[in-house]
Amino acid sequence: MSELPQNLNNCFDPRTGLVPIAEAEQRVLDHVTQISDTEVLSLTRALGRVLARPIVSPINIPPHANSAMDGFAVAGTSLPDAGTRTFQIAGEALAGKPWKGTCEANQTVRVTTGAMMPTGTDTVVIQEDVQISHAEAIIGTGHKPYANVRLAGEDLSRDEVAVEAGLKVGPAELGVMASTGVGRVEVVRQPLAAVFSTGDELKNAGEPLEPGSIYDSNRYVLMGLLQNAGADVLNFGIVPDDEAATLSALSEISKSVDLIITSGGVSTGSADYVITALQKLGNVDLWRIAIRPGRPFAFGRIGEALFFGLPGNPVAVMVTFYRLVQPALRKLMGETNLNPVPVLKARAVTSFRKKPNRAEVYRAILSRDGEGNPIVSSTGLQGSGLLSSMSQANCFVLLDDEATTASPGDMVDVQPFEGLN
Ligand code: AMP
Ligand code: MG
């Protein structure tokens, strides 16, 4: 079971027999199409979902000109050019309680922040700059017409697109949509993902460990990653290292989900059945990629379901998920901006050892030096089974295929974990 599936021999690097990561990323995306089903949700349930249609504001936001400060509203043309001018205080307007009269040139209306600008006024002089004597306000020079006023429609005007289709709804989008008065929105259906782990050595939490066995951690990592990415997850447990069991699990599950994610059993060992099962049931579009950790990765399709065969080592699971599964999920969920998570530069404090012709991803800690500049150090040993180092790290350091070992003092690419979820 060590030869490459037939249809793949056009995309690997002949030096390594592996597919370069950039090419793998592109190939996966090329095979994914957006889910076409949509559903209508109330705003309170729309967080993390992708808008299927743009939200067009039916109103100006703000709906009326209003004061940006606590102060006195006047006509800008009445402000004095020299000395002071005394205005009669005609009334008061509060947020939500407009003053109903018309303010004359020699009058002013006391306003609070958010109060609708009284008719006849277009300027607010902040209260600290106004001298009050009985029912009169004395205003001096130095005030500009139109100051401290928020204009109707200055945030969004009526019929303007408030939030574009294809955008994932975050807290800001929820607020923008709420400000338009829209209560329900049409979003792309959530993808349904199935997860199982492969391996005769795996036990579920609560079961006693036998000699040679370990607890299954990958499934929990994957359920967390998938939920954070916005998918609905079905947990299919542990499948033994057995071809018939792998075939029956995959053929059954593939009928009802958008994507299947497995871990382990995807190399060329004698107990690795995922690739053979995938070849029998569907297509292998990609297998074995030039990234460490993560090399034994497979991608394909079984019926309508996308298939991602992730490596067994837990850190490799996380790295390949972020690089290859997450962008695919974003496309599936209808996101139109698929720009990768931003990468920044930081000065290496430790070295990052690198072999040629493959990308390497290191777990690292990003912090700041005494001058506030970003610095990054390795978490230490980089074995792909050391899952606790993922929890200690707060970023990845990324060295691409052609890069050589980074030494202390070198500037390296850093991807903070904060941006990944
Ligand atoms: P494999 O690719 O199946 O040969 O697995 C590679 C390594 O990852 C082996 O040491 C496995 O025991 C380990 N591994 C595989 N699946 C899991 C899992 N679900 N949880 C934790 N470790 C795993
Ligand atoms: Mg295995």
Quickly describe the structure:
Helix content is 17%, strand content 30%.
Overall description:
This protein has 421 residues and is of the alpha/beta class. The protein folds into four domains: 6-37 and 189-332, MoaB/Mog-like domain (Molybdenum Cofactor Biosythetic Enzyme, Chain A, 3-Layer(aba) Sandwich); 38-61 and 154-188, Alpha-Beta Complex (Molybdopterin biosynthesis moea protein, domain 2), CATH 3.90.105.10; 66-150, Molybdopterin biosynthesis moeA protein, domain 3; 344-420, MoeA, C-terminal, domain IV (Beta-clip, Beta Barrel), CATH 2.40.340. The chain has seven helices and 27 strands. The chain has helices spanning 21-30, 171-179, 218-228, 243-253, 274-281, 314-332, 388-392, and strands at 19-20, 38-42, 55-56, 66-67, 71-74, 85-93, 107-111, 123-126, 130-133, 136-139, 149-150, 161-163, 184-188, 192-198, 202-203, 214-215, 232-239, 259-263, 283-287, 289-292, 298-302, 305-310, 344-348, 359-368, 374-378, 395-399, 411-416. It has a six-stranded mixed sheet, with no helix packed on it. It has a six-stranded mixed sheet with strand order 17-14-18-22-21-19, with helices on both faces. A five-stranded mixed beta barrel has the order 23-25-24-26-27. The structure holds adenosine monophosphate and magnesium ion. Residues 197, 199, 201-202, 214, 216-219, 263-265, 267, 269, 296, 311-314, 385 line the site of adenosine monophosphate (AMP).
